[in-house]
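Continuing the batch. This is chain 6 of the set; chains 1 through 5 are on the previous pages. Same settings as before, nothing changed between runs. Recording input and output for traceability.
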Amino acid sequence: MDPYIHSRSHLLKNKANLHTPEALAAHEARMVFKRLIFLYSRPVSGSFDLAHLLAIHRALFQDVYPWAGRVRTCDLSLGPVSFCSAQRLETSLTALFGELARENWLRERSAEKFAHGAAYYLAELNAIHPFRDGNGRTQREFIRELGVLAGHKVRWAPITQFEMYTSSKLSMATKNPIGLVHILRMALGLN
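Output for chain 6:
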């Protein structure tokens, strides 16, 4: 049983108590867009660790979900793809962010090398999938903020939802972030 799903509507439990997919999708899009605009001028401060990722999710989804900013407590899959088990989320994320810190948060790298490093971390975050919903938007904001720290401007606007989804799915299937490297190169204006 999924504790995040409302038993009557079969939708994610939400603060606005919406019970149709269309109403929830419209509300979520509106609220998250508003918060994302705010984050562009005032990014979440943090150390690019688990607490920082949770703070970004909370900042984006605080108006929509009561569990915003908390890792999921149930296992999650998308078709045949299973994401990291709920039991291992915090351990996996802590290890990943430790690796990022040892790489000096991808600072002092050319845009090309940043694209490769950021694609790796984006792929790993996607494979872990720490939240019940909102993973992609949270991951992209995390990578955008990482770019700011590293001196690179990551612009997601040129990337279509289809391109992002396809590249993320490919990285999961092949365990190779090459599609996401292409996406990051576009986001950095290298393509």
